[in-house]
Amino acid sequence: MRPQTPVSTIMSKNIIALTLSDDLERAEVLFNRHKIKHIPVVSGEVIIGMLSYTDLMRISFAESADEENDSVDSVVYNMFTIEQVMVKNVVTVNSETTIKEVAQILAEREFHALPVVDDGVLVGIVTTTDLLNYFIKQF
Fold this sequence. Notes:
Distance between the termini: 9 Å
Shape: globular
Structural class: alpha+beta
Mean pLDDT: 89
Strand order of the largest sheet: 1-2
Protein name: CBS domain-containing protein
Organism: Algibacter agarivorans
CATH superfamily: CBS-domain
CATH architecture: Roll
Low-confidence stretches: 65-70
Domain CBS: 11-67, 86-139
Strand content: 15-25%
Number of domains: 1
Keywords: CBS domain
Largest sheet: 2 strands, antiparallel
Pfam family, one: CBS
CATH topology: CBS-domain
Number of strands: 4
CATH class: Alpha Beta
């Protein structure tokens, strides 16, 4: 394991993102279609928030979801906007941040994903899954 390896070597560069004009139904579709748990919310290329699948389920009364199609009644989603549900004060790292530093942030702050931002522009996202896959390859 190289202690100075930058996060850019393991981050996802194919970013699935939302904007404030999107709705929570679209968010659910993206979570399910791409099998992801975190979606950055952007204005242009700038990150303004982060929405997690957990945030979505928290407001959707997940227990009442239809077991067959994993969808939640759209009436619930229409009660909230992405801006109301997303985390607004997003902690970010840059692409040169080391994997070790990212692991420390995720562990200490109990996050599961960090947006990667260079010069104010969202360039990737790194998740605990990315970290675990990296560590597995080391052994």
